[in-house]
């Protein structure tokens, strides 16, 4: 019998995500700029690095899931990774933002190695942390609260970095007389923060180290093959539906972020307002995370998710359809983006439900593998986003500082609003048909699984 969770294990569940966000945002915001403007790597080689690292990052997700499912260290199947993984990832992340060796080719190789190793390791301990939502407790309300708290910590980490981190990189670089070292040292500092956050939650969960990893009484612990893990996707329609709608949601977000510069420059002529816009979206996400748990507990996760994402779609369609001034655009997007943040705070709990469905369906629990897939839609959407944005700009022959022609303005509005809205509507339709898990059905499945485990061995 698992011990009841203490409040700190629930309320600080998102702490590792806070540390992760403070670290990863260096890459999200500045990786390409670091390669071209600071490491001075030729553009053709930069393009190769970005393509190769994107592919490696996509492949790292299922690989990390397999590693997590196959591993079982003594400090807990999932908890152990909070201790072991972060120092390794932080070390190689520093290499990703370094300039070692005289030739650009040598620097590129070291950066690529730093990227691949750090991402493989952090995908593994990130999946382990996410898996703890399902492993630590079987209580739906606790899972929702933990997922919501993670959403708040996620948003807080991004907000802290955007406010302090951007300035700190430049200040450190100026202080040591090397802009490159500004990035290297900041990667080390945020890596240290990430390690500390994971270590704190590792200590907090000491009493629950073996939760979710006990073998059934009288039976040896199950070891699933890679084929059995992949089968867990095929036989799990709720998981497929959730991944598809998440792909649409993340793709919409990344397109919005990628097109925002062009919208502010050419459509509303307010480029200085872009920083406020980005900060405002993060605040909207934080607010959404605060209200996610009580709403989801009352309406159910699926209903809350679909209503919230519909709010974002409506906001985007207003942006696409109506001529808006800068202030009106920001207000509409700040409200609409609550519709992005609410699902972001429910995803972990909903993936946890698909783990339980998979165990009910197959009799085997692939918690580590399934929970690792939470990152898969993110990686795919980052890759696809670049293709879509390039196509939007290419459709009007975009060049830097071109005139704001009606064709350019319409293309940008299509890119930032219409196309993301269409993508998310498709995701919602697929989710509606495939994600059939309700609180009542989850309770019935949990009861059936528990009865199977208590059945005498033949």
Please identify the oligomeric state.
single chain
Q: Biggest β-sheet: count, sense, barrel?
A: none
Number of helices: 18
DSSP strand count: 0
Account of the protein in words:
With 458 residues, the chain is an all-alpha fold. Helix content is 79%, strand content 0%. Helix 2 packs parallel to helix 6. Pfam families: MFS_2.
Key terms for this structure?
458 residues; globular; mainly alpha
Q: What is the structure about, briefly put?
A:
Helix content is 79%, strand content 0%. About 1% of the residues have low confidence.
What's the topology here?
Blueprint: H1 7-11, H2 15-38, H3 43-70, H4 80-96, H5 104-136, H6 140-176, H7 179-204, H8 226-234, H9 237-267, H10 274-299, H11 301-321, H12 326-336, H13 338-344, H14 347-362, H15 367-372, H16 376-394, H17 406-434, H18 439-454
Helix pairs in contact: 2-6, 2-7, 3-5, 3-16, 4-5, 4-7, 5-14, 6-7, 6-10, 6-14, 9-14, 9-16, 9-17, 10-11, 10-12, 10-13, 11-12, 11-13, 11-17, 14-18, 16-17
């Amino acid at each position: 019998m698992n011990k009841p969770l203490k409040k700190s294990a629930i309320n600080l569940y998102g702490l590792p995500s806070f540390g992760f966000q403070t670290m990863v945002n260096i890459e999200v915001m500045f990786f390409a700029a670091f390669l071209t403007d600071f490491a001075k790597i030729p553009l053709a080689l930069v393009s190769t690095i970005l393509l190769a690292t994107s592919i490696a990052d996509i492949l790292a997700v299922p690989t990390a899931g397999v590693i997590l499912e196959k591993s079982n260290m003594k400090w807990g199947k999932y908890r152990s990774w909070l201790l072991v993984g972060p120092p390794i990832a932080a070390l190689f992340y520093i290499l990703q933002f370094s300039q070692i060796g005289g030739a650009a080719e040598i620097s590129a190789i070291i950066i690529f190695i730093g990227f691949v190793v750090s991402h493989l390791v952090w995908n593994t301990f990130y999946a382990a942390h996410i898996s703890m939502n399902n492993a630590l407790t079987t209580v739906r309300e606790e899972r929702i609260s933990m997922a919501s708290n993670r959403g708040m910590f996620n948003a807080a980490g991004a907000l802290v970095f955007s406010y302090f981190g951007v300035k700190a990189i430049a200040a450190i670089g100026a202080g040591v007389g090397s802009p490159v070292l500004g990035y290297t040292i900041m990667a080390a500092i945020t890596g240290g923060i990430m390690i500390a956050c994971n270590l704190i939650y590792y200590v907090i969960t000491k009493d629950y180290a073996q939760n979710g990893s006990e073998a059934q009484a009288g039976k040896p612990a199950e070891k699933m093959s890679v084929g059995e893990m992949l089968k867990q996707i095929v036989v799990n329609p709720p998981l497929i539906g959730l991944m598809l709608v998440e792909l649409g949601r993340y793709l919409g977000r990344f397109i919005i972020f990628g097109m925002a510069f062009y919208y502010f420059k050419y459509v509303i002529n307010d480029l200085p307002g872009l920083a406020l816009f980005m900060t405002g979206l993060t605040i909207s996400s934080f607010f959404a995370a605060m209200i996610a748990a009580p709403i989801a507990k009352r309406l159910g996760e699926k209903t809350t998710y679909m209503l919230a994402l519909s709010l974002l779609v409506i906001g985007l369609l207003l942006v696409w359809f109506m001529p808006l001034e800068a202030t009106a655009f920001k207000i509409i997007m700040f409200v609409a983006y609550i519709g992005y943040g609410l699902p972001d705070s429910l995803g972990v709990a909903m993936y946890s439900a698909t783990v339980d469905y998979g165990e009910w369906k197959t009799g085997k629990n692939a918690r580590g593998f399934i929970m690792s897939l939470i990152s898969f839609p993110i990686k795919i959407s980052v890759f696809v986003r670049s293709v879509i944005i390039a196509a939007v700009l290419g459709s009007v022959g975009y060049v830097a500082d071109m005139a704001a022609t009606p064709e350019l303005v319409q293309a940008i509005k299509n890119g930032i609003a219409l196309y993301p809205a269409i993508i998310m509507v498709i995701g919602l339709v697929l989710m509606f048909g495939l994600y059939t898990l309700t609180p009542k059905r989850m309770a019935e499945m949990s009861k059936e699984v528990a009865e199977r485990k208590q059945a005498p061995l033949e």
